[in-house]
Amino acid sequence: MMSKRKAQARRKQPFKPSFGWLKPALAALTVAGSALGLTLMSEWMHDPQAWPVKRVHVAGDFHHLQKAQVQAVAAGPAAGGFFVVDVGDLQARLQALPWVDQVSVRRLWPDELDIRVREQQPVARWGAAGFINARAEVFTPDPPVVLNDLPALAGPEGNQLRVLEMHHRLRAMVRPLQLDVSALTLTARRAWRLRLNNGLQLEVGRRDPLQRVARFVRVYPAILASGAGQMISVDLRYSNGFAVRWNRAETTPQQTG
Fold it and tell me: 52, 103, 186, 196: which has the fewest C-beta neighbours closer than 10 Å?
């Protein structure tokens, strides 16, 4: 009797179709629609005609670098459109310019590139055609530039900072004599050679260069007072003195006492 009632109850229940498949289907359609939308948007954003770079703004205090050089490097990447410009790649290209010390590149909505450049500030000439900045970094302009008012430094590769620091110390040492160091060389044998701004050449050697120059500074006024003539060069590589070459082509040993 009970089983008949259950069978009748089941027959009276209405049919309910299953929609369990609908949620996955809708999710798949949503993903497909989003992907299509993103694809279309990406194509639109990468269209240089739809999003052109209308202005390349270059800022900086330039003496040797020309704004036109920076704009010429930026012209190619900028032609691809606002969203296509690879800011990192463009920055690397600009950084490769010899007179560029530091550079930053930004997009400015909706159609501008902002480029800010700090030009190299040479503190000395280096080698035959290069220059060195305050961080002892060497750069070589192309085409070459002549800046004769800068001191001339030279030395083996990797010794830029050592030479620059020695130049600073020697300048301070000879400044009380109203002189300056116009050239300084560290030879391949690690010996020091310098030229003062009055043309006097000093052979300092490898050992105790600062002590040897200090010894020369102490006696320099006395040598001038001797009235022996114009000094051409001084060899400081003696243990107890130095040798002076005068303009009459004689070499006279000088004792420092």
Answer: 52
Whether the predicted model's global pTM rises above the 0.85 cut? no
Q: Nearest-5° angle of CA 102, CA 167, CA 211? A: 150
Cα 60 to Cα 107, 118, 122, distances in angstroms = 17, 6, 16
Locate CATH 3.10.20.310 in the chain: 55-119
What is the homologous superfamily of the domain 55-119 according to CATH?
Answer: membrane protein fhac (3.10.20.310)
Q: What contacts 109, CB < 8 A, 6 or more positions away?
A: none
CATH of domain 148-255: 3.40.50.11690
What is 18-70 written as a DSSP string?
--TTHHHHHHHHHHHHHHHHHHHHHHHHT-TTTS---EEEEE---SSS-HHHH
- The residue whose two tokens read 């590139």 is 113
Tens of pLDDT, residues 90-121: 999 999 999 999 999 999 998 999 999 999 99
Asked if 232 and 201 touch (Cβ cutoff 8 Å), the reply is: yes
